[in-house]
Structures are given as structure tokens and as C-alpha cells.
Target: Potassium transporter Trk
Amino acid sequence: MKKEFAVIGLGRFGGSICRELSREGMEVLALDLDEDKVNEYRDIAAHAVIADSTDESVLRELGLRNIDHVIVAIGDNIQASMLTTLMLKELGIKTITVKAQNDYHEKILNKIGADHVVHPERDMGKRIAHNIISNNILDYIELSDDHSVVEVKAGSKMSGRTLVDLDIRAQYGCNVVAIKRKKDVIVSPMATEEIRESDILIVIGADKDISRFEKNLV
Ligand code: ATP
Ligand code: ATP
Ligand code: CA
Model:
């Protein structure tokens, strides 16, 4: 069954979400105040409308109530973003994702009842910083303030050794949840899996443990 989405605000972030959802075959209602922006999405989204999302009657007329998931991607106008989120919440939208512009905005959105608050510039900045610091960390996802999932290059120290040999869980408190080997992904590798130099390990753990693991083995 096709899921229905609405994207409010077609800047770079909202626009990218709208394109990707549509490309995946989802039915998307794209909405923006700006006529040119909306025109850009006429052939991409299932529906594209010029409207002000802070106008409650507009939200009702568009039948937004029946949409599963609404993404609010209004950036600079924090007031419009908050007001839109509040009204969507009052309409009873099941899932609301909102882009936050700063930490205060994020706090308020959480209080209003946004289901997911995203902060793409801050989070992408953090990810890139981690990739820059360590040549071996290819990617990084923050799970909480002190837990992450990282993608690391195996390297020569681990090459030819098994997870048991390296005793990663016991020694470092981290878990290797998957190994990427060329085009294959070995999910939940066995303790006897032998690591190859060009493998990429997906490791989950506390930041301090991952950092110890990385210092000693990568
Ligand atoms: P980017 O993702 O490009 O960084 P941004 O986060 O800086 O964008 P803005 O450019 O401030 O966001 O806004 C994104 C879009 O939201 C703009 O195209 C703007 O026209 C639209 N927008 C702003 N207010 C409203 C509103 N009340 N109703 C509908 N769309 C709105
Ligand atoms: P333990 O109870 O001591 O953690 P276990 O019963 O899970 O061990 P095995 O699965 O045989 O025993 O693994 C032995 C050791 O190999 C583990 O203690 C751990 O150090 C390491 N190991 C095995 N699989 C992984 C993994 N996926 N990630 C990290 N370390 C692993
Ligand atoms: Ca911006």
C-alpha cells in the first residue's frame, strides 16, 4: 500500500525529501508559499500546491488530516515552522517530522509534540567532523550522547584474525554487527569469521569503547 506524505517547505532539505520519497514510489503532497518552488515539483510530486501552511483553513481544505506523515521543512521562519507544527498536531496527524534551525527551536518543537525533530546541518557537520578526524572512520551515526555506530576500515592489524582472536566484545565492549566485504554484507558475523584487510566493519558501542577499539586495532 502506498503511504501518503506531505512535505511543507521546498527548500534544499524539504525538496530533497520530496524527490526521494517520490522516487521511491510514495505519494507526496508538496507544499510551499513560493510559486516557483512549487512549479519545480509539479512533475516530481503527486500533488504540488502553493499555500501558506500557517493558515489553518488551508490545511483543512487540503485534507492534510488524512496524511500519514507530514514533514515540516520550513527553515528560517521559525515562527511559521512552530505554528505549522502545532496546527498539524491539532489536526491529529499521526507522524510529524520537523527540521529545527537551532537548539531552542528543537526544544520547543519537542514540547509542541513533534514526533521527530531533525537538525541536518548540525548532524551532518558532526558526521563529517568524525570522518575528518579519523581516516579510518568512514561513517558515523550518533545513537545517543555517548553511543554510536561507526563504519571502520579493518586495516592490517585485524587482517587474517577472527572476532574471537581479537576478542572485541570482551576487550573493548563493542559489537561488530556487520562486515561489508566488497559487494557482500555479512550480518551478525560468527565469532569465527576471519577479517580481511579490505573489510569494512560496522561497530556499535559506547563512544569511549569505540575510540579504544579504534586506537588499538585500526
Ligand atoms: P534549505 O533546506 O534550502 O536550507 P531552509 O531550511 O533554509 O532551506 P527556508 O529557505 O527558510 O529553509 O524555507 C524553506 C521553504 O519553506 C522555502 O521555500 C519557503 O518558501 C517555504 N516556506 C516558508 N514559510 C512557509 C509557509 N508558511 N508555508 C509554506 N511554505 C513556507
Ligand atoms: P562472551 O559471552 O564471552 O561474550 P560468547 O559466548 O558470545 O562470548 P562467542 O560468540 O564465541 O562467545 O565469541 C567469543 C568472543 O569473540 C566474544 O567474547 C567477543 O569478544 C568476540 N566476538 C564474537 N563475535 C563478536 C562480534 N560480533 N563483535 C565483537 N566481538 C565478537
Ligand atoms: Ca538553510
